[in-house]
Amino acid sequence: MSATKNILKSNRGYTIAELLVAMAIGGIVLSGIAAVYQNQTKGYRTQNMVVEMQQNARGSLFLLEKEVRMAGFDPADTDNFAITDIRLRDTSNNLSTSGYSTFTFAYDDNEDGVLDTGETITYKLSDWPSAAPDGVVDLIRNDGGSDGLVAESIYAFGLAYSFDDDEDGELDTSAGGNVIWAIDSDNDNDLDMNLDDNDDGYINATDDGDADGFLNDNALSTDIDLDKIRGIRIWVLARTKNVVQDFSENRIYTVGNRVVNPSSDSNSAVNYRYQLITAVVKCRNLIFSQYQ
Ligand SMILES: [Ca+2]
Ligand SMILES: [Ca+2]
Ligand SMILES: [Ca+2]
Ligand SMILES: [Ca+2]
Questions:
Q1: Residues 108, 214: one domain?
Q2: Number of domains forming the structure of the chain
Q3: Per the domain annotation, does 47 fall within a domain?
């Protein structure tokens, strides 16, 4: 009798209440797993985006450095190859003293002594191929023909120049003994402004004496012609292609003559991740023939 009862009991299946409890527990476990998975995916996505940004920026700087080093390369000594334009431009390529650095130079790529098509190169920041609604711009290389993409999602691009004005074979230095890194602040294609306003050997936001967002506070005593340039300092500020959830950028970057503060910029700039990379290029081709 009791054996039959037990068989009956074990075969009776589940009550509605038991099913509900089981489903509730299952639901809690599943949503827990989903939350962990979602967090991991989010972290993974962010990590991928940051790695992509870093690789993108480093790769572009490597190419840029390599080519900029060739500026003025003129093995036949024809004087046809030089730095020709360092003026500031906006991202639509219009001259603007509040714009970004651009750099145009020529080198004798095929070593025939003639300035050929494709031997005049410009690097610039541009909203190419068309105006980006989120303010994301790209680093562009132009060789006289159409624009080519060097790096996507570059937030700021800056250049400064060292020079040898007295032609003694040494880079000119400041009163404090620091190599002078200068720019053309008034867009007439000569160097006129020393970025290191406080002459401490570093170029950063403390050199913005009047706090207008630009390192335009220490004019050179004389303007310096482009043919006196001997070295180029490069700043590339890359950022992720998309906003990073739950992230807020609080760092201030100095990029050439510009102080960049994403937390006060528009277009959700504060919610991206950034990376600043820099390089100094000695232009071995930009020396006088008597030193060659
Ligand atoms: Ca040539
Ligand atoms: Ca100038
Ligand atoms: Ca300084
Ligand atoms: Ca200033």
A1: yes
A2: 2
A3: no
Same structural domain, 36 and 120: no
The ligand whose atoms approach the alpha carbon of 187 most closely is 2
Q: How far apart are CA 107 and CA 121, in angstroms?
A: 8
Asked if residue 40 has pLDDT above 90, the reply is no
Alpha-carbon distances of 34 from 1, 29, 30, 40, 41, rounded to whole Å: 49, 9, 6, 10, 10
- pLDDT tens profile 141-153: 999 988 888 998 9
Same domain, 12 and 77: no
Q: Are residues 264 and 235 in the same domain?
A: yes
Q: How far is the CA of 125 from the centre of ligand 2 (A)?
A: 20
Instruction: Give the range of the structural domain holding residue 24, as residue numbers without chain letter.
Output: 2-42
For tokens 């003293």, what's the residue?
97
Task: Summarize pLDDT for 96-146 with one digit per residue, the tens.
Answer: 999 999 999 999 999 999 999 999 999 999 886 655 545 578 999 999 988
Question: What gap in Å lies between CA 136 and CA 153, rounded to an integer?
Answer: 5
Residue 51 lies in a domain: no
Whole-number Å distance, alpha carbon 190 to ligand 1 midpoint, is 26
Side chain identity, residue 197: D
